[in-house]
């Protein structure tokens, strides 16, 4: 099977997954008790205004008809209008998704770099105090929910020592860069606004660390065990017998095969970061898509709920495909199996 | 080794990042920041909740302005005339009032604002919709309102008519809207912009994040010297965040939605106090007046006599006070002499004996619903359950999400026996509460789960609200309160204060100071956060930070 056919097949499966997801989430969003139109306009809005909104949302029609209307709009790029921000959901997504992506990218970066580094360190010094220390921190890091870490970091580094800011993406006295990508760090670099760049980095630090800690230690554990397992293999023994320096053996022959399971998990963890960021976003008042997603669910903002879940579903699917491709690149055996050899 | 270099690089980056803090130190600003739950709408035809009301009160002007003692004084209108039949109100506008874009405010803008509010049918339109016949500009500075029927509190209700810049709004309408020639009536644009003449104007509005407004330099009224140059409304109520911001002096006034522990702890920090502002909100236990056994007046009164009100007011909601009747003591028109039920188990048992359900109480357990989103309500529900058990009434405590409650109370059949619900007045007068809580027209809404359909009471309420004479109207309100207390359709639990932590050391906040002196605060929602009634001293803030 060649690469393009493999990719086409994966994309085809994904379309079915997304259609299934859309049906399930559409039904759930509309079956939750409460009249979305009344909730949106408030208990004191006139009945005419509420009825007009119901009709606009097609809430007066059977649910399958509502779904057909929704699907038709989505295929034209229209995800409907948020009942609470009162503007097209797609505009909300455009506004809030970059904040979450920026947070997830930095958290992912922390997770990948420090996770793999700690894993290497633990493997290199396995069963020494270094390994034991990393192990203790790993258990703590994996077991502690991100929001608890966030509160601790906020109280210590934000409040007690006042090193990092604890709210928003930029300080009020720093001029925001013009919106190009929506990622403030990138936009400020593009426009040469270094004050905003450093300020944005400082704002990113606590939420990104809080969010990444669990995944980071998980990657560290996986990298460690994978490296230790590969260390026992014959080809490593052969390399060592040839007198190849340990540094070269580790970095050139051991690391690449050992990070394959880490990369698989890393991809999924990265996709989960976007969905799981909501508590961290709430705590740091981070105007991201996860926080928006929770708010729209609490408010029964039907169109926005479906759109947010679909966006998260798409991100998850795309990341999954990318991870498969990266793993296939790293591990030739996977490519052979796909070719049926 | 390579990894060592990488670790060193990471450590250096972190240090650089931390060092950047010195470069970006915060400068002192003459700013007041406060937190509140979102969404916030700054469009006056949509705004109706707390945060929106605070925003529009600072961005827009009204014909009359509400005072702390519940009266209204001239504002955009210099004076007014009311016809003898109470159906025509003529206002004479102040000349030279500028909108934020520099254009002059005229009667045409007032007409546009009222018509826009009524057409959109959201926000505070419900106050005006039933009474406004027409509104017309007689000339540039005279506007006349003609009412369908006499509405005594009309003048007081006008604090909710915020005047928009017609030309500016019309420049920004989107043709795709549902309001015919007015397109979307500028709703999309007004989500993030203002078209007002108020003392502050929008600098930046980021949905779900914050509203940042700055002082309007050409405001028609003199601005006090130490009034904030800007204010920022931050969209969060997360306790950890609010606490951190308060302690870092990056927040001047907290929201009022924090748990009791927050206020207790934050007040221990130097320079921070907690203000308790009674805003007119009352906490009721509403009883279904058509469903057995709460359809029996003696059964209801038995419950009213067995409740431990002190525990609710002092332990569950510290700082609250037991409600005296159906109208909060803060609201103009409250009856301070109305009978107040107290815990008295003897009386409770006597009333219960008179009830037709007395002999078969075990067959009539009652369901008491509390709102899942307000955890403190569970404590009240459990207390009522325990109190009722003392006289032999079995209460089932039911936790229900708010959206489900709204659905449930739509019909008498699906409405449970009892609901714990906070209700606030629509406008700052007793009549508002009496109408929304006890007039039969509000049955089926969350404001009246009692299903009280009493023609005599309806007539009394309608008559009182139609009375233009202030004293006469208030006398009628007092009488209605006596009638309702005697009927005991609900348990009048507490008048709930809004608790705000604030930076007492470097801001002067009129509302907080009045509350501390035991004086009434502004009963109109949003006006205790009127920024011209706040003074801020940034140098004192810096002093506090250095400590």
TrEMBL record, chain A:
Its main location: membrane. The keyword Magnesium does not apply. Keywords: Cell membrane, Membrane, Transmembrane, Transmembrane helix, Transport. It is a multi-pass membrane protein. PROSITE patterns: ABC_TM1. The chain crosses the membrane at residues 12-29, 103-125, 137-159, 259-284, 304-330. InterPro entries: BPD_transp_1_N, MetI-like, MetI-like_sf. This is ABC transporter permease. It comes from Thermatribacter velox. The lineage of its organism: Bacteria, Pseudomonadati, Atribacterota, Atribacteria, Atribacterales.
UniProtKB/TrEMBL annotation, chain B:
InterPro entries: Peptide/Ni-bd, SBP_5, SBP_5_CS, SBP_5_dom. The keyword Signal applies. The keyword Transport applies. It comes from the Bacteria. Keywords: Signal, Transport. Residues 1-25 form the signal peptide. Residues 71-441 form the Solute-binding protein family domain. Belongs to the bacterial solute-binding protein 5 family. This is ABC transporter substrate-binding protein.
């Amino acid at each position: 099977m060649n690469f393009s056919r493999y990719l086409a097949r994966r994309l085809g499966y994904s379309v079915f997954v997304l259609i299934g997801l859309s049906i399930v989430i559409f039904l759930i969003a509309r079956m939750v008790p409460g009249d979305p139109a009344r909730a949106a306009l408030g208990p004191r809005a006139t009945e005419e205004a509420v009825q007009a909104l119901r009709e606009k949302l097609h809430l007066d029609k059977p649910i399958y008809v509502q779904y057909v209307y929704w699907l038709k709009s989505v295929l034209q790029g229209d995800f409907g209008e948020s009942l609470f921000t009162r503007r097209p959901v797609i505009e909300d997504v455009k506004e809030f998704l970059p904040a979450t992506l920026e947070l997830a990218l930095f958290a992912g970066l922390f997770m990948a770099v420090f996770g793999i580094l700690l894993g290497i360190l633990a493997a290199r010094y396995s069963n020494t105090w270094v390994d034991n220390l990393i192990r203790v921190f790993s258990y703590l890091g994996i077991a502690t929910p991100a929001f608890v870490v966030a509160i601790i970091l906020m109280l210590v580094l934000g409040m007690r020592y006042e090193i990092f800011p604890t709210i928003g993406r930029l300080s009020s006295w720093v001029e925001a860069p013009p919106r190009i990508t929506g990622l403030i760090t990138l936009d400020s670099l593009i426009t040469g606004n270094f004050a905003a760049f450093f300020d944005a980095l400082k704002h990113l630090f606590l939420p990104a660390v809080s969010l990444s800690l669990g995944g980071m230690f998980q990657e560290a554990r996986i990298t460690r065990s994978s490296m230790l397992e590969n260390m026992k293999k014959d080809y490593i023994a052969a390399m060592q017998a040839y007198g190849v320096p340990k540094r070269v053996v580790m970095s050139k022959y051991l690391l690449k095969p050992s990070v394959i399971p880490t990369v698989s998990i890393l991809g999924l963890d990265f996709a989960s970061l976007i969905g799981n960021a909501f508590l961290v976003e709430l705590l740091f008042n981070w105007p991201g898509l996860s926080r928006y997603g929770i708010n729209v669910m609490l408010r029964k903002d039907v169109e926005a709920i479906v759109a947010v879940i679909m966006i998260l579903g798409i991100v998850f699917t795309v990341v999954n495909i990318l991870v498969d491709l990266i793993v296939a690149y790293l591990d030739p055996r996977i490519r052979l199996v796909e070719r049926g050899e | 080794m390579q990894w060592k270099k990488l670790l060193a690089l990471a450590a250096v980056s972190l240090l650089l990042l931390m060092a950047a803090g010195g470069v970006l130190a915060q400068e002192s600003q003459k700013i007041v920041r406060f937190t509140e739950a979102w969404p916030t709408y700054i469009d006056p035809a949509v705004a109706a909740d707390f945060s929106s009301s605070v925003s529009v009160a600072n961005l827009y002007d009204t014909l009359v302005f509400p005072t702390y003692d519940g009266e209204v004084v001239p504002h955009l209108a210099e004076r007014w005339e009311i016809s003898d039949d109470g159906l025509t109100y003529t206002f004479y506008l102040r000349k030279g009032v500028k909108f934020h874009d520099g254009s002059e405010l005229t009667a045409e803008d007032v007409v546009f604002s009222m018509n826009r509010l009524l057409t959109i049918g959201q926000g505070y339109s419900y106050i005006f919709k039933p009474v406004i016949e027409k509104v017309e500009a007689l000339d540039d500075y005279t506007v006349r309102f003609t009412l369908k029927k006499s509405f005594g509190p009309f003048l007081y209700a006008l604090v909710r008519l915020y005047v928009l810049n017609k030309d500016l709004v019309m420049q920004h309408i989107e043709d795709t809207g549902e309001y015919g020639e007015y397109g979307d009536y500028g709703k999309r644009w007004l989500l993030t912009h203002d078209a007002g003449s108020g003392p502050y104007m929008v600098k930046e509005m980021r949905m779900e994040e914050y509203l940042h407004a700055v002082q309007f330099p050409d405001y028609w009224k003199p601005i006090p010297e130490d009034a904030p140059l800007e204010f920022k409304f931050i969209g969060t109520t997360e306790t950890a965040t609010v606490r951190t911001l308060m302690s870092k002096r990056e927040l001047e006034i907290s929201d009022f939605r924090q748990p009791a522990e927050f206020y207790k702890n934050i007040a221990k920090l130097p320079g921070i106090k907690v203000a308790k502002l009674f805003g007119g909100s009352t906490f009721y236990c509403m009883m279904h007046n058509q469903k057995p056994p709460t359809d029996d007046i003696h059964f209801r009164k038995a419950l009213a006599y067995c409740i431990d009100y002190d525990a609710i007011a002092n332990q569950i909601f510290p700082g609250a006070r037991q409600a005296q009747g159906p109208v909060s003591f803060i609201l103009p028109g409250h009856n301070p002499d109305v009978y107040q039920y107290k815990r008295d188990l003897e009386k409770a048992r006597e009333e219960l004996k008179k009830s037709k359900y007395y002999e078969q109480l075990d067959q009539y357990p009652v369901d008491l619903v509390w709102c899942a989103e307000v955890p403190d309500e569970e404590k009240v529900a459990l207390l009522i359950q325990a109190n009722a058990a003392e006289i032999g009434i079995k209460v089932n405590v039911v936790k229900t999400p708010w959206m489900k409650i709204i659905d449930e109370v739509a019909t008498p059949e699906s409405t449970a026996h009892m609901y714990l619900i906070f209700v606030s007045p629509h406008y700052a007068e007793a009549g508002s509460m009496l109408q929304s809580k006890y007039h039969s027209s509000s049955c089926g809404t969350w404001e009246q789960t009692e299903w009280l359909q009493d023609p005599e009471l309806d007539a009394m309420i309608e008559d009182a609200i139609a009375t233009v004479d202030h004293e006469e109207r208030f006398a009628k309100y007092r009488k209605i309160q006596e009638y309702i207390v005697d009927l005991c359709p609900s348990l009048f639990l507490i008048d709930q204060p809004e608790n705000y932590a604030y930076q007492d050391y470097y801001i002067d906040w009129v509302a907080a100071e009045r509350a501390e002196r035991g004086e009434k605060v502004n009963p109109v929602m949003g006006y205790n956060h009127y920024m011209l009634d706040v003074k801020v001293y940034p140098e004192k803030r810096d002093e506090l930070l250095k400590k």
